[in-house]
């Protein structure tokens, strides 16, 4: 690792691959990175409520032989500050001296990277299977909280306009009610970036209890939602500490939805066109 930005990004993106103790350490480091560079391995173990051996294993998993080497990588933050780079502004080395065009160009390049990371894990046969199931389902319900609700609403609108019976749920009470009323012929499609939203987890559990087909769209393949769902679609990610849910997060979700939508149209293009024209006329 050569910079704090890249190291913290690596920890953030791979939290789900760590052990239970490793996730505790990662969470503490991400919240208190400035403090970690000045404390001992025993202090970190105490603060993260893990054993010292767990800290050592955590560092080695990230490619550092010693805890001291890990701390040195974190301390590079000070060097970055000297060159006008603020690691809290973004994960793509956004400088405080960048003008508007510089920032726009970096955002565009960042989006390209996120979309490439979304395409890379795609399994064509799995996608084709999901398109088959969506084509045959009775109802498809999209569940999403917060920014993932934007993607859920987008998916519902797209699929409804080509003739599928779709719904979008983002209120927890309505999510629970609808999930409990699903049937085996229905699909419950859950969108959750980190895959740990309690509202989504409870809704998914209710849907599975009723025998519905469950699909998860998430960045974290080892998250609770991903582990519970029948099928999992993985998105790219580049959330930054100051931005929270970035445009990249939403764009990667919308991209996957558009991929499924386009493949559905590809199956029966004339039928899709006729139905869409009918909805366009209704709006006119």
Automatic annotation (TrEMBL):
Domain HTH rpiR-type: 5-81
Protein name (Swiss-Prot/TrEMBL): MurR/RpiR family transcriptional regulator
Keyword terms of this UniProt record: DNA-binding, Transcription, Transcription regulation
Matches recorded under InterPro entries: Homeodomain-like_sf, HTH_RpiR, RpiR-like, RpiR-like_SIS, SIS_dom, SIS_dom_sf, WH-like_DNA-bd_sf
Organism: Photobacterium angustum
Upper taxonomic lineage: Bacteria, Pseudomonadati, Pseudomonadota, Gammaproteobacteria, Vibrionales
Residues of the SIS domain: 130-270
Domain of life of the organism encoding this protein: Bacteria
PROSITE patterns named in the record: HTH_LACI_1, HTH_RPIR, SIS
Keyword Transcription regulation: yes
Record flagged with keyword Disulfide bond: no
């Amino acid at each position: 690792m050569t910079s704090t930005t890249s190291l913290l990004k690596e920890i953030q993106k791979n939290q789900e691959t760590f052990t239970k103790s490793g996730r505790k350490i990662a969470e503490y480091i991400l919240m208190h990175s400035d403090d970690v560079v000045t404390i001992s391995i025993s202090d970190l173990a105490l603060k993260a409520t893990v054993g010292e051996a767990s800290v050592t294993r955590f560092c080695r998993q990230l490619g550092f032989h010693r805890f001291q080497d890990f701390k040195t990588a974190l301390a590079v933050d000070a060097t970055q500050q000297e060159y006008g780079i603020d690691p809290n502004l973004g994960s793509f080395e956004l400088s405080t001296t960048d003008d508007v065009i510089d920032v726009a160009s970096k955002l565009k390049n960042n989006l390209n990277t996120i979309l490439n990371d979304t395409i890379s894990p795609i399994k064509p046969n799995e996608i084709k299977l999901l398109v088959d199931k969506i084509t045959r389902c009775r109802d498809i319900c999209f569940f999403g909280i917060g920014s993932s609700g934007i993607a859920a609403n987008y998916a519902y609108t797209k699929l409804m306009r080509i003739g599928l019976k779709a719904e979008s749920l983002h209120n927890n009470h309505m999510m629970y009610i609808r999930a409990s009323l699903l049937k085996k012929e229905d699909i419950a499609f859950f969108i959750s970036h980190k895959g740990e939203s309690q509202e989504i987890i409870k809704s998914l559990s209710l849907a599975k209890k009723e025998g519905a087909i469950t699909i998860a769209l998430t960045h974290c393949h080892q998250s609770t939602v991903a582990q519970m769902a029948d099928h999992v679609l993985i998105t790219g990610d580049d959330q930054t500490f100051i931005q929270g849910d970035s445009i990249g997060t939403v764009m990667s979700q919308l991209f996957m939805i558009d991929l499924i939508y386009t493949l559905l149209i590809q199956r029966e293009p004339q039928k899709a066109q006729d139905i869409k024209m009918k909805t366009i006329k209704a709006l006119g």
